[in-house]
Structures are given as C-alpha cells and as structure tokens.
TrEMBL record:
Entry keywords, A to Z: Heme, Iron, Lipid-binding, Membrane, Metal-binding, Monooxygenase, Oxidoreductase, Steroid-binding, Steroidogenesis
GO molecular function: heme binding; iron ion binding; steroid 17-alpha-monooxygenase activity; steroid 21-monooxygenase activity; steroid binding
One BP term from GO: steroid biosynthetic process
Family assignment from sequence similarity: Belongs to the cytochrome P450 family.
EC number(s) per entry: 1.14.14.16
Residues annotated for heme binding in this entry: C224
A Pfam family annotated for this UniProt entry: p450
Compartments, as annotated in UniProt: Endoplasmic reticulum membrane
GO cellular component, one term: endoplasmic reticulum membrane
Membrane-topology annotation of the record: Peripheral membrane protein
Entries under PANTHER family matching the protein: STEROID 17-ALPHA-HYDROXYLASE/17,20 LYASE, STEROID 21-HYDROXYLASE ISOFORM X1
Lineage, opening ranks: Eukaryota, Metazoa, Chordata, Craniata, Vertebrata
Name this protein carries in UniProt: Steroid 21-hydroxylase
Cofactor(s) the protein needs: heme; heme b
Amino acid sequence: MNLISSLVVLKQVLRDYNGKAVDLSQDFTVAASNVITTLTFGKSYDKSSVELQNLQDCLNKIVSLWGSPWISTLTDTHVHMTTVDLLIGGTETTAALLNWTVAFLLHRPEVQNKVYEELCGVLDVRYPQYSDRHRLPYLCALISEMLRLRPVAPLAVPHRAIRNSSIAGHFIPKNTIIIPNLYGAHHDPEVWDDPYSFKPERFLEGGGGSLRALIPFGGGARLCLGEAIAKMEIFLFTAYLLQDFQFLPASVAGVVLKVKPYTVIAHPREHSITPMLMGFF
C-alpha cells in the first residue's frame, strides 16, 4: 500500500462514519502505520487487525521503557532497533501532528476555510501532488506553524560530542550527551513574535517567521532519518483531508501540550475528484 492508497483508505473510513462525532486518533495512527509497515514489511493492516494492535502495544511498551539503564547495553549490531526507530518515528509522529492539526483547526475554522479555498483555487478538480507544495503557500504555512507550535519530539534525539568543543562560549567536553530542546527553540520570544499563539500567517511572505529557525526534525549533521518521507506524508495527508472534509467540533475541548482524547465530525465536502494511486510527486 503506497502513500496515496493509504490516504484513499483513510478517507473512506472517515466517510463511513456518516457525520458521527468520533475520535480519529486511532485512524490517523493506522494510516501512518501502513505507510511505514509497507516500507519495512511490505504489509498493510486495517484498524481491526490483531497483528497491528500487537505491534502498536509493543511499540508503546518500548517507548515507555526508553531511558531504562539496560537500553545503553544495546549496540549497533541490533539491526532490529533500526526498524523500531523507523516504526516509532514514522508512525507516532505523523499521527500526533495530524491530531494536533485537527484540534487547532476546530478552534480556528477560518484557517481551515482558507486552506480549502486555496486548494480549490489552485488545484481546481484534482487532488494535490507533493510537487504542488510551492503553489500552496497557506497550506505550507499551516504545516510549518504546527511543526513549530507542537513539535512532535519536543526534545530531539540525543547527540554525543565526538571532540571538545564550545557553543556560544560554553565549553562542551568530549563525549557530552547533548539533547536539543526543539520546543524551547520554537517558542523563543527573541526569535518568534508571540511564540505561543497559533499564527500560520507568520510563515507567509512578510509574516516574520523564519524557516531557518524552524527545526522540527532536529539539528546538526544527523537530522531525522525519515525527514523526507515525513514531510511528504504530512503535506499529502493534510491536503487530502482538508480538501475532502470539513472538521467540525463535537463539543468544547481545551487544547493542551498533550492532546487529550477528543471527538470530531469529518463532514465530506461536495465535490468529485478521482484520486491518483500513483504519481504523487
């Protein structure tokens, strides 16, 4: 199942809810999981799959144990850990960002409408391709603002200093473990105007936002391994969903750092577009 196929399945799942208020977090997780499991295992699953549930339970258990003393005994020869990194990094992160995006848009319907109007105006009666991102500045601004405001990995993957060094006059001894604080960098008032407010417009031309200062995939030479596919996933998932559905609040819910379970109505929009199963670049 390629990325577009996974999107088609997700959209049908949302349509099958027939306007009911539902929690979409599991559906987002399954859709993101299928993109990664297809790459790693050559398999895809539906939400009722026992095998998928066991896999997610396993990943959740691994995440809960992260930082335990025995983790440090693992070596580079444990190839399976690379697969685990890919699964965790490529599944939970994308699903979490989709959840955050819908949650914020429920509180800012005018932003949702602007994205929809841009999609209709630029694409007319076809679905977006990844190459369309340069023609959809407001959608890209929304995604950038979500990555800034709610980085899915607030503290990035630890790095190790391989030699004595210094940063801004601070001595960093060799072998020091360095953990980039992405959340802090994205909410620094010296860099971002009104950093705790949701303002996609900051990333439009003249909006004052800096893509150079946006580092959701980490910093340094060793960035997130899945950055390229993550950017494609996030762009296409967001574009397809906002083109086909209007997300409406089912109840009043607060938005906090960790998304609490919430329900949403995915109301299908009235247009007919035939999805492309291939050629999404």
